[in-house]
Design brief:
binds fe (ii) ion; globular; 90 residues; mainly alpha
């Protein structure tokens, strides 16, 4: 276990990833989701930074496999956490 990514690190991460074929719209979508999640979290008195990070990375699997992005994202996060020592979740 490690510390959670900062929203700046998560933003840099998704912007550094390639697109898997179709387009890059998932990145703009993810940024919107993260920003809205932070607003909602603030209204609910929850952790805005964590909500933003999770919104930013929620579709990260689309960088590898658009149609199966949920599984691809899970595999990416597992790989980064173990091989690159990039802590994502608490
Ligand atoms: Fe999404």
């Amino acid at each position: 276990m490690g510390k959670i990514l900062t929203s700046k690190e998560a933003l840099n991460l998704i912007n550094s990833l390639p697109s898997a074929g179709v387009d890059d719209h998932w990145k703009a979508h993810s940024i919107c989701v993260g920003n809205v999640a932070a607003i909602i979290a603030k209204a609910l008195n929850l952790d805005c930074e964590k909500a933003k990070v999770l919104g930013y990375i929620h579709d990260i699997g689309k960088s590898e496999n658009y149609k199966m992005h949920d599984v691809a994202g899970y595999e990416l996060i597992k790989k980064w956490d173990m091989k690159k020592s990039t802590p994502i979740f608490v």
